[in-house]
Write a structure and sequence with these properties.
CATH architecture of the domain at 1-144: 7 Propeller
CATH topology of the domain at 1-144: Methylamine Dehydrogenase, Chain H
Helix content: under 10%
Mean pLDDT: 93
Shape: globular
Strand content: over 45%
CATH class of the domain at 1-144: Mainly Beta
Length: 297
């Protein structure tokens, strides 16, 4: 809950009807929580506190035997620094926490950094795996995505409407920058900020949503990375709304759902893997400020 700096824990009592029961509410240990992730052992919950109303940090909270996070023994870590954009980068802004291959990745929009931490799953202690990875200045990295089959990481940059591609070596926390590519059409000039990024289920395309241009850019993943050009733009998908903060595919991989935060609607597209096309199917309206979608099996 970003407005009161709390984390609320629910049990799912009826997955068909979606009935939830609140079990506990705890402090996020910071200001404006915006991202959560659980490590592969199921012992630790990581929280990114953006710091909209104060200082930013990220937190590791131990999960007890009932899978409830405990505030005792929380590990709280801050990132020093700021960026050149005085309006958006006056201090650190941790925007995403992501566990991947025994490391915890923290994406910091405020300092233009990707931070790789090794963590001890027995006590939650973290330490920097290597030097902080500096992106280009003033780009505001927001979210990271790791390719499931290739040693590639994709980062969407909120402040300059670009996507970065890196070759990675997770054993030593090394990132080699390969490419930066725009999320926009050539003549788009209004204010824009990318949000979410995901691969299509067949891993042929990378999608990134644009808030402002109100579309999703579709990148083709090139098989032969000539001159390190991993991505090329295939086209754009009109999202039939405003502020596509989040999108995801359903468990079958046949449908793409887009949460339009500013127009209060949820859009469904079908994805045809054979034709590589998206087709508008339907929408749900009057959904107040949708920001995330989770499917429960």
């Amino acid at each position: 809950n970003e407005h009161d700096d709390k984390i609320e824990i629910f049990t799912i009592d009826d997955s068909i009807q979606g009935r939830l029961t609140s079990k506990n509410i705890i402090s996020s240990q910071g200001s404006t929580p915006c991202s959560l992730d659980i490590d592969s052992t199921g012992k630790w919950l990581a929280v990114a506190n953006y710091g909209g109303n104060g200082s930013s940090n990220f937190v590791l909270l131990p999960l007890n035997k009932s899978n409830i996070p405990e505030e005792n023994n929380a590990q709280i870590v801050s990132i020093d620094g700021h960026g050149p954009n005085h309006d958006r980068q006056s201090h650190s802004h941790c925007h995403q926490v992501k566990f991947y291959q025994n490391n915890l990745y923290v994406i910091d929009l405020g300092t233009d950094t990707i931070n790789v931490y090794h963590y001890d799953d027995t006590n939650g202690q973290v330490h920097l795996h290597c030097d902080r990875i500096k992106t280009q200045s003033s780009i505001g990295p927001r979210h990271i995505l790791f390719h499931p089959d290739k040693l590639l990481a994709f980062v969407t940059n909120e402040l300059d409407s670009t996507t970065n591609i890196y070759q990675i070596d997770s054993m030593i926390g090394k990132f080699e920058h390969l490419q930066t590519i725009t999320t926009r059409r050539k003549n788009d000039e209004k204010e824009n900020s990318p949000a979410e990024l995901q691969l299509t289920p067949d891993k042929k395309y990378l999608l990134v949503s644009n808030r402002g241009d109100e579309n999703i850019v579709i990148y083709y993943l090139n098989d032969n990375n000539n001159n390190n050009q991993v991505l090329s733009i295939k086209g754009y998908l009109d999202i039939h709304g405003l502020g596509p903060r989040y999108f995801t595919f359903d468990p079958t991989g046949h449908f793409l759902l887009v949460a339009n935060q500013n127009s209060n609607n949820l859009i469904c597209f079908s994805y045809n893997r054979n034709k590589d096309t998206f087709e508008f199917i339907s929408q749900l309206v009057n959904i107040e400020s949708p920001q995330h979608i989770v499917f429960i099996s």
